[in-house]
Amino acid sequence: MTEIFRIIPITSATASVAQQSGAVQDYTGLGVPHGYGQVADTLQRPLRDLRISVTDRCNLRCTYCMPREAFDKDHAFLQRADLLSFEEIERLARLFIHLGVQKIRLTGGEPLLRRGIERIIESLARLNTREGKPVEVALTTNAVLLSQKAQSLKDAGLARITASLDGLSEATFRCMSDSDVPVKTVLDGIAAAQRVGLAPVKVNMVVKRGVNDHEIIPMAGHFRNSGVVLRFIEFMDVGCTNGWRMDDVVPAREIVEQINSRYPVRQVDPNYTGEVAERWHYADGSGEVGVIASVTQAFCHECTRARLSTDGKLYTCLFASSGTDLRDPLRMSATDQMLAGLIADHWGRRNDRYSQLRHAVTEAPREKIEMSYIGG
Ligand code: SAM
Ligand code: SF4
Ligand code: SF4
Asked: What are the chain's domains?
């Protein structure tokens, strides 16, 4: 380990955070040296959100994420010993919080496949942000196992849940998820989450032209008046296996126009700075929909997310090709100060803005990490 401490300067972008929080202090009692606090990257973006992939395995094979040809029975999934343990996740999460993280999302792969997921939710939900508020713990799931898990997730302290569903007809769902799971199983999971009070549940629908775009209006119709916030996501070129082509992307603008022509909508303000979804309310008061235009209207300038892969590597962009290993130092007895130094240093050097540059890139295609490993 070469670089151990690096004092992160408090920039103008982070000054307001520092002022609000009473400048740089050791909120966690970890003994992190003075000078550490809210970190900012080279584009002055603070570190605010952490996505943790708790497993690289999944019970579906969505064609846009884990196509069966690439993720078949011969695929080398991580072995148990490679995965960060819950204790290791909690320790790293505390350090990320010290450096500014306020929200943590558990994802994967399919996070509900990780045995005892409630235990890590429970310990993360007990942590406080630098400002002394409870950290918000959320989870993204394909909802296949949600009916049976909703209550225990809620009891463990989960604040919010996002479920993924790409169509209402069995044929479309089968085509997108490459599975025989009935749509009803997912809908029952979403209903269970609402029933136990994990509201408002959000539902993500990835839209692929010619495959499930005919389900935009049925999905909007189904979730109006239900309390569920449906969000349409542009199909992204994550990883190297999903055969992405720009022609397959249905731009968010087009999605909103389609919805508006059937159910008039009006745009509303974001809930907070950096919210990735553009929000729309139905004019008749029957609820909210969102669009996530990661391809056609990149939001890199407001991207405050770090990602921790299943085996403990830190990535600062969904489209990254390399990360910083935190697991080996962790297992080789690195102190909290050393680990915080590694995280702060990586974030401090961050200049990612892949989506903004996507169309300008002229260099040869490079390896990109798969979403199931890095955490969607
Ligand atoms: N298995 C869980 C699920 O499907 O909700 C969590 C992990 S998944 C990788 C997280 C989110 O990423 C899902 O909502 C999924 O639809 C989305 N996603 C995966 N691949 C995508 C792609 N190529 N483009 C856009 N969204 C994608
Ligand atoms: Fe699994 Fe989620 Fe990827 Fe679908 S999107 S293959 S459910 S990890
Ligand atoms: Fe953030 Fe990278 Fe996505 Fe831009 S491309 S919004 S930097 S994850």
From this structure: 7-374 (3.20.20.70)
